[in-house]
Write a structure and sequence with these properties.
heterodimer; A: alpha+beta; about 20% strand; elongated; B: SH3 type barrels; 60s Ribosomal Protein L30, Chain: A; five-stranded mixed beta sheet; metal ion binding (chain B); Protein DOM34 homolog (chain B); cell cycle (chain B); metal-binding (chain B)
Chain lengths: ~800, ~425
């Protein structure tokens, strides 16, 4: 179908009007004249339909078009189709209404008789007000004539309107008030035409007039107008003064509901060429699914979002409210981002997907839950023996794991059956001296290489107290794991290889003896037991013992351990002397102190984690490992209770993912026995219900519901540097350690340097780089922006407020967290 | 990259018109460095236009556009480079025929289906010239790949002379060993982790074109990974891996995070394997700079004012400059940095332009992007440059020895 019509085509185009899908398509369909006229009529129509719902621009336009650009009939038709927003039935007028209907009907029957002889274009147009009653050919003639007149009037002056009114006057020969109204209507229509593009003679006065008229019209209801138009044509046709009473009666029912008009037009409706339903409902391609179509139609019958906005805007500018609203207005500082508008057709760029999302958080609970079987904490604590967590440190091959294996064997935590089995297995691969270490070193890698890789915890009990061993790796590549171990312990056992040259290599040449001790100091280990291991290889010589002791003492004092924080025990892990049961050989006469376990018991009594104050502090748990069963219905987190107590049934929140879970049960010890309570210092496994395993990582913290642990990306800390090869500068890449958390980070800013001995004293306000053995306040940020670490400041928690930083495999500094920045 | 045509303006004007064609991924980095704000580009792209207002149909036509660059969007990990620009009048070719002036268009550098395009530069510096020449010389390429890993975490990276691009990160939570746990479970998980790492390597690396594949880790993880890679490759009959097994370099570093790669690059033990790569050269220079700084021999300085002063004096031995300075949006900054390099080179020094897309450049950027190593120590280079004086805090050391101990306690406990 072509898009434009010649005037010749006009005669039969009425039959070819397609179904339009949207407004634009319809606008295209119109020719220029029609479009211009539509532009004038449409706003008025819209205004009149304000009270109605469910209409859209297209249907209004189509309706106007179908009514040959007669606003009145179009309005009636539309109002019949769409519901009024708040129907207000006015029953009082029902009698009048009935009368009007009757009369209107009688007149309609007469109209066809006269309308066969249309001569004056304007009259045609007016008559087409009830064109539903005329035949299709008539309408097309009407339209053709009208278009002609449009053309003509485009070139004539505004006098036209006067002429036309004269003609009207001539035909009516009446001078009633009603006539004057139609006069204005006629002149308005004439003026409208003058505004066609191409005819630039339209003066501003015309425009004003049009506006005035438009306003004038719009103040009336459309039925009123319809009746007026209708009555006017009737007037013309009958040329009968008797019709005045009719007109008056119609005028009287001006305010009758729409139904009056609807009734009038019901008959003529059937003469429509096109199926009414198809034309005025939305186009839906697939008619097989009636329900779907119905739904679609229903959707379109609601006011569209645009309509809602338009209506709101109109409501907003109702004169009486405008003042109020203006008074309510306030300036907001929101900056409008004036980005240049880019041309469309850019959609073909396939931009790479965005960065991975930030840490997923869940909704955390606020209300604590009650324990299932509450027990009296105070009386429970009285039954508990003193408890101690200790970590075994030392240079690689200093015999840490063997020492621990021996210890566990002697105290009875490991049965001799297992030891014999391990002995056999180790002989097969030719490492028989490692059989005790294999108690702790279980993975294939560790056994084959004879190196401890990861920490391993184990519980044992003596008559006086209970202990948890954390066996740490000694190899420099696994210092990160050792840091995890150290951060879990309160006391350290430093295993020193007393063999010839072995101590020296572990101590002097960047061995781990020093680094481990430094880490222990930085992470708040209170006491160090120096286990002078492998004394059997030097025949228990006292001189060797004293030499090493004096050399180590100097170092310990340098980093801040005093003699009261140190104890020295000669022993041999492999043979077992000086550990627990096995007595020292007869050649050793110079040491009379307690053996290793004895010394541990003494320390346990002094530094026990069990105390009355646990009831007062909140429960905080550091997570070392997360596992879940295959169905992921419940999760087991293992770690250490940093403070407070927890009982099954209580709820905890895991940070930074902020998920709250109920503790289903608590598993203690090597063989995962169920317990009723976990108190500070315990290494336990907590079975959680409904946890999101994938969002929990090693190093996360958990706390009792109601206690929040802030997590951070950037923080300010007081940093103390150790011995450095390269200075620390802003941007220097580092690895940050806090408990089991390991994250790459960098220095964001060097704030100011402080005195190493007195951290509150500012030395230099400006620091360009940080060398060895200096202290400074620095800002540290994580490299990975998607990760946040839950943190305490040093004031909040002495142990968790400490971090260690490493670079290129060396521990370069320790820091105390001052504040979390982000 | 192919240089199809070069027209240089009159001598000294610094103008040049280049016709270039990007060919591989590394060219994106070159282009990113040479196309600056306010440069003009003539290129062809297909534009979609609607037939008429109301119609939903649209036609695409190939249009020749000349735009002035406004901004740049570069995502190295996806090899995605897009410029935004506004059309300008064309006096050189017959571009912008049906396009009004002042419309915004984007220029997408596509290395898969490259069109030649014309670049019009007002400041064609020797630096740009060098970059173009280097980009056209394929023999100088040094593509490497690296896998840096530790237990449960591995980073799969591509390294070229401009950047270290993290292609993928494999993260598995390996259960901690416990005395009671089933050790099989642990091994299972570890096997899965290595498998995932291998799969990712095969997916991201083109072993035939790479010069070297570095596997580095603390401990023995890299060796294990190498064994596993060979095993998996044999199982899956992956010929490209097996044929290039000699390209693998198993190295040691202290961490499984990206920093580990730099450690390997500057480790003398691997020097002979990695020689001639721009990247490792830059790592060395940076390390040298830090060494001087650590020795506090007053030969290493950073900061704009300090460098400017040192350059004026002609004392700079090695200038470290971030490429952010070289392709800054501000013309004055670009001019200044070009001038700086010229000064240094005239005084017999070297200038190292370090890409901000690798870790060394990132580090340098944090140090204002400018640093230098001097020929002779100058202790007072920064004298009179700083506005706020470095106040030495009052020495009140006699405030009581016993008090010091208390403070120490406060720190350690």
């Amino acid at each position: 179908m072509s898009k434009f019509y010649d005037e010749d085509d006009v005669a039969d185009y009425d039959d070819e009007v397609p179904n339009f899908q949207d407004e634009d398509e319809f606008d295209d369909y119109l020719n220029d004249d029609e479009f211009e006229l539509m532009k004038q009529l449409f706003p008025q129509a819209k205004k009149e339909l304000q009270d109605y719902q469910g209409w859209d621009n297209l249907s209004v336009k189509v309706s106007i078009f179908d009514n040959n650009f007669e606003l009145g009939p179009a309005m009636v038709e539309l109002k019949r189709r769409f519901k009024k927003k708040e129907p207000k039935p006015e029953k009082k007028l029902s009698a009048l209404e009935a009368l009007a209907r009757k009369r209107a009907e009688s007149k309609l029957n007469k109209t066809p008789l006269v309308s066969t002889v249309p001569k004056v274009p304007l009259l045609d147009r007016l008559k087409s007000g009830d064109k539903q009653t005329s035949t299709a050919t008539k309408t097309s003639i009407n339209l053709a004539g009208r278009l002609q007149s449009l053309k003509k009037e485009g070139t004539t002056t505004c006098n036209d309107s006067g002429d036309q009114t004269k003609k009207i006057n001539g035909t009516t020969r009446t001078k009633s008030s009603l006539q004057s109204k139609t006069h204005t209507l006629a002149s308005r229509l004439a003026n409208l035409r003058k505004h066609k593009p191409g005819t630039e003679i339209a003066s501003t006065s015309d425009k004003e007039e049009v506006k005035k008229d438009a306003i004038h019209d719009n103040t009336r209801t459309s039925d009123n107008k319809y009746h007026r138009d209708d009555s006017w044509s009737i007037l013309n046709q009958l040329k009968n003064s008797s019709c005045f009473c009719n007109v008056n009666s119609i005028m009287a029912i001006e305010k009758t509901p729409v139904s009056a008009g609807i009734a009038d037009k019901q008959v003529s409706n059937s003469t429509f060429k096109r199926k009414h339903d198809d034309m005025f409902s939305i186009f839906y391609p697939n008619t097989n699914y009636r329900a779907v179509k119905k739904q679609a139609v229903a959707n379109f019958s609601k006011p569209s979002p645009d309509d809602v906005v338009v209506n709101k805007q109109k409501a907003a500018f109702e004169v009486d409210k405008v003042n109020e609203k203006v008074a309510d207005l306030s300036l907001n500082d929101e900056k409008t981002n004036e980005e240049p508008e880019y041309v469309t057709s850019e959609d073909d760029d396939n931009e790479p997907s965005a960065e991975e999302p930030l840490v997923k958080t869940h909704k955390k609970a606020e209300i604590p839950t009650k324990p299932k079987n509450p027990i009296d904490i105070a009386s429970y604590l009285k039954t508990k023996k003193p408890h101690l967590n200790f970590v075994v440190l030392g240079h690689v091959d200093a015999g840490k794991s063997t020492l621990m294996g021996r210890l566990l064997y002697e105290v009875g935590a490991v049965d001799s059956k297992l030891i014999r089995k391990l002995e056999k297995e180790s002989e097969i691969i030719g490492k028989s001296s490692f059989h005790l270490a294999w108690v702790m070193d279980q993975t294939a890698e560790e056994r084959n290489r004879g190196v401890t890789v990861d920490i391993c915890t184990s519980d044992f009990e003596t008559t006086k107290s209970t202990f948890t061993i954390v066996d740490a790796p000694g190899h420099r590549d696994f210092v990160p794991n050792a840091i995890t171990g150290i951060s879990q312990a309160d006391v350290a056992v430093l295993s020193v290889d007393c063999g010839t040259d072995a101590f020296e290599s572990g101590f002097n040449l960047d061995g781990q003896t020093k680094e481990h001790t430094l880490l222990a100091r930085s992470l708040g280990i209170k006491h160090i037991i120096v286990a002078m291991n492998k004394m059997d290889t030097v025949s228990w010589q006292e001189s060797r013992f004293r030499d090493i002791q004096s050399e180590l003492t100097v170092f310990f004092e340098e980093i801040g351990y005093k003699s009261k924080d140190l104890s020295w025990v000669p022993c041999s892990g492999l043979t077992g002397e000086g550990i627990f049961k096995t007595a020292y050989p007869s050649s050793q006469t110079w040491y009379q102190g307690p053996n290793l376990v004895g010394e541990l018991e003494n320390i346990a009594a002094k530094h026990s984690t069990i105390g009355e104050d646990v009831t007062k502090e909140p429960f905080v748990f550091s997570i070392l490992d997360v596992t879940s069963n295959s169905k992921k219905t419940n999760t087991i987190i293992s770690g250490k209770v940093e403070s407070g107590t927890v009982q099954p049934g209580e709820s905890i929140t895991v940070f930074p993912s902020e998920q709250s879970c109920v503790v289903d049960s608590i598993l203690h010890g090597n063989d995962s026995q169920k317990g009723d309570i976990a108190v500070r210092g315990d290494f336990v496994q907590l079975k959680l219900l409904t946890a999101f395993v994938e969002d929990i990582q090693c190093g996360d913290l958990a706390s009792i519901v109601g206690v929040d642990i802030p997590s951070s990306q950037e923080f300010t800390s007081t940093l103390l540097t150790f011995k450095l090869d390269r200075p620390l500068l802003p941007g220097t890449p580092l690895i940050l350690f806090r408990g089991a958390t390991e994250q790459p980070c960098r220095i964001k800013k060097l704030c100011y340097s402080v005195d190493k001995r007195k951290l509150s004293k500012v030395l230099k306000k400006k620091v360009k780089h940080l060398g060895s053995q200096q202290a400074a306040v620095v800002e540290i940020e994580l490299v990975q922006k998607t990760r946040r670490i839950p943190m305490f400041t040093c004031e909040q928690n002495k142990k968790l407020g400490r971090v260690v930083i490493r670079k290129e495999g060396k521990t370069v500094g320790a820091a105390l967290i001052k504040s979390l920045d982000y | 990259m192919k240089l199809l045509k070069r027209v240089e303006g009159s001598k000294g004007s610094g103008k040049a018109i280049l016709t270039l064609q990007a060919q591989d991924k590394e060219d994106l980095f070159t282009l990113y460095n040479i196309i600056n704000k306010d440069d003009e580009v003539i290129f062809k792209r297909s534009l979609k236009t609607k037939v008429s207002d109301g119609d939903k149909k649209s036609v695409s036509r190939l249009e020749k556009l000349r735009v002035k660059i406004i901004s740049c969007d570069f995502k190295p990990q996806d090899f995605y480079l897009k410029y935004k620009g506004v059309t300008v009048e064309d006096d050189y070719s017959n571009a912008n025929q049906d396009i009004p002036i002042g419309k915004f268009y984007s220029f997408n550098v596509d290395i898969d289906y490259p069109y030649p395009f014309t670049l019009i530069k007002d400041d064609y510096t020797p630096y740009v010239d060098k970059l173009v020449k280097e980009a056209c010389d394929i023999s100088g390429r040094s593509d490497m790949a690296a896998v840096v890993l530790q237990e449960g975490i591995s980073h799969i990276c591509l390294i070229n002379s401009f950047s270290t691009v993290l292609k993928h990160k494999v993260e598995y939570s390996i259960p901690k060993k416990k005395r009671a746990t089933d050790i099989m479970k642990f091994d299972d998980k570890l096997e899965k982790f290595y498998r995932a790492t291998y799969d990712s390597m095969v997916r991201h690396f083109n072993f035939d074109t790479l010069k070297c594949v570095i596997l580095c880790s603390p401990g023995f993880y890299s060796k294990t990974l190498f064994d596993k890679v060979m095993k998996y490759a044999q199982e899956g009959k992956n010929k490209s891996v097996l044929d290039n097994s000699s390209k693998f370099l198993v190295a040691h570093c202290s961490t499984g995070y990206l920093q580990g790669i730099d450690e390997v690059l500057k480790d003398p033990a691997y020097k002979h394997n990695l020689e001639n790569t721009t990247n490792s050269k830059h790592v060395m220079i940076m390390d040298d700079f830090l060494d001087h700084l650590n020795k506090d021999d007053c030969k290493a300085w950073y900061g704009e004012k300090e460098i400017t002063k040192a350059a004026e004096l002609g004392y700079i031995d090695t200038l470290l400059i971030s490429d952010n300075w070289m392709h800054s949006d501000d013309v004055n900054v670009r001019r200044k940095s070009t001038q700086l390099i010229k000064e240094v080179e005239q005084a017999g020094g070297k200038a190292a332009i370090i890409s901000s897309l690798n870790s060394v450049g990132e580090e340098l950027d944090r140090l204002t992007g400018l640093a230098c190593i001097l020929k002779y120590p100058i202790p007072d280079l920064d004298e009179g440059l700083d506005d706020d004086e470095e106040e030495e805090a009052d020495e009140d050391g006699n405030e009581g020895e016993d008090k010091q101990e208390d403070d120490e306690e406060e720190y350690y406990l």
